[in-house]
Amino acid sequence: MKDQMLQDATRYGRRGYPATKVSTDDQHKLDALKQDTDARSKRYVDSAAREAAEIQNSARNLQSLFNDQPKQGELKLNPAGTNLYIRNYQAPDTSPPSLLPAHTQPLKPNPATH
Q: Which residues, at least 6 apart from 58, have a Cβ–Cβ distance to it below 8 Å?
């Protein structure tokens, strides 16, 4: 399709009239421009594919970390605060902190005042 458009552009002018012949030098410049554009496009597509593969790999790694049970003395992955780029660990014998902001947590009665 793109090649056909380029051929049509060399055959016809802006208003549909037959175009003047493109010089060989100009045709070489157009060809070089097309090759450069195609090469850039391929680099962008390849880069996006590599980035998508890396994100998939990171997601698989994160999933396996959640599924693995920590060995004795190892830190445990805490789901709160963990995402593809940040890992949040906690000691295996501690409970994860509450996700509620401090002002929404229930108050505990003070035994000294009762």
A: 84, 85
- Cα–Cα dist 96/90, whole Å: 7
Backbone angles phi and psi of 77, in degrees to 5 = -75, 125
Q: What is the pTM of this model?
A: 0.52
Q: Which residues neighbour 113 within 8 Å (Cβ) at sequence distance 6 or greater?
A: none
Task: Outline where the chain has alpha helix (H).
Answer: 2-11, 24-67
pLDDT tens digits, residue range 51-100? 999 999 999 999 998 888 888 878 888 888 888 888 888 876 666 666 66
Q: Output DSSP code: residue 102.
A: G
User: By the 8 A CB rule, do 76 and 70 touch?
Assistant: yes
